[in-house]
Design brief:
Layout lengths: L1 E3 L5 E4 L6 E10 L2 E11 L3 E2 L6 E9 L3 E5 L2 E5 L5 E4 L4 E4 L6 E9 L6 E6 L2 E3 L4 E6 L3 E3 L2 E3 L4 E4 L3 E4 L3 E7 L2
Antiparallel strand pairs: 1-17, 2-3, 3-4, 4-11, 5-10, 6-9, 6-11, 7-8, 7-10, 12-19, 13-18, 14-17, 14-19, 15-16, 15-18
């Protein structure tokens, strides 16, 4: 089990240069990005970065949320509801009303199996099946280890999550 503290996340510029993200975890391969977890602030209406060959799941962590619109697509990004979309579509955030939202992003190369992303309330027990990436939305205890808000726990085993808060569980198949 690995524990990554939020204080260690790297600030990175958005691909479109219009903002920054906190890179939580990144895995690259010979063809480039394979898997990435990050948190970003959407502070106003505007374009999202286009990421060819990448599948994305976005979950609003705080703030009112917004709508993502593009050719043939209109998605409501509401708090704590994971939303899936292809990264190679030109999309714009709309309806922010000038109120910032912080979101959690799961990005996966299209050639890889897509992970599942769920928001769960503690206490909860998750079985071992692939790799689990657990982002604490509140202070929690994972397999007996205290974690703080926005810390990430990575495990290949089952996970017992205790406390009075929520967690985003990202499961990558083997």
């Amino acid at each position: 089990m690995r524990h990554l503290a939020a204080a260690g996340y790297r600030p990175m510029p958005w691909a479109n240069g219009r903002g920054t993200t906190a890179e939580v975890l990144r895995e690259d391969g010979p063809e480039g990005l394979r898997f990435r977890l990050s948190m970003a602030s959407v502070t106003g209406d505007g374009p999202f970065s286009v990421l060819p060959g990448i599948e994305r799941t976005l979950t609003v962590l705080s703030g009112p949320g917004f709508r993502l619109t593009g050719e043939g697509l209109s998605l409501i990004c509401a708090p704590l509801v994971p939303v899936f979309f292809p990264g190679d579509l030109a999309l714009c955030a709309e309806g922010t009303g000038g109120c910032p939202s912080v979101d959690f992003n799961v990005m996966t190369a299209r050639a890889l199996p897509r992970p599942t992303v769920t928001v769960l309330q503690a206490p909860v027990e998750l079985p071992a099946d692939g790799t689990l990436y657990l982002l604490a939305l509140d202070p929690l205890v994972v397999n007996g280890m205290p974690v703080q808000r926005h810390d990430l726990v990575i495990t290949e085993t089952s996970a017992r999550i205790d406390g009075a808060g929520a967690v985003i569980a990202v499961r990558r198949p083997r």
